[in-house]
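Q: How would the structure tokens look for this protein?
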Amino acid sequence: MKTAHIIKSSYSGMMYSRDFQLWYTYLSRRLNQGWSPQDLSFLLGKPDHFYMDFEKMFQVSKFLSAESLLLDRVYISSEVVPMAFHLEPYEVSTERIVRVKIEEDDVKWNYTIEIPWRFELGKKCSAAPLLYMEEWKAEKDLQLESDAMIHVRGKLDFLLDKKILERGKSSWELFQEVCTTGLSQLTIYPRHLKNCLYTMIQQGKIVVRNVENRYCFSSIV
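A: Here is the predicted structure in token form.
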């Protein structure tokens, strides 16, 4: 019987309880959408590593201050995962260490998140819980991938023909334009848009610019 090959890794970072609540919310949203960290970096108009730095807890407060509003627009949601943290009367909110342990096998990643806070349970409080999440690896169907790329390219060509891209559009704005297909079996992911845009850049049909420190795509006039 074949034994699954498991790779273990971990990382940690310091954050306030409110920042952790948002960090956990955005991780949950990403996994529910089936997007990768690179997908989020692209939708935020940033280099590939940008969102992964946030998930690995690098300068979380700074990231949230700059990106929360746009992330909520990307997800079309501002709902936060409910968490009631317990503080004793003598305690103040301080940064504490959060640890994430990952076990990766052939089909998924298992996340175990260790937090230092206790949760309120009515008039009582519970011990610091362990939080578990799963991220399944994508099984790419070549035909569906091809159909998705054809769909996105058709939408982008339409935008070019109508001169809608003359003033430029951000990654997330373009994703809103192309993500609806009307077909239940066809899901458009940010990577499909990214690949199409970069192909069209190579073909000299679209140019990418840095506008207010974010990528912006426009037609070549």
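Residues 7-136 form one domain.

The helical segments are 17-33, 37-43, 50-55, 60-75, 142-161, 171-178, 190-202.

Upvote if useful.
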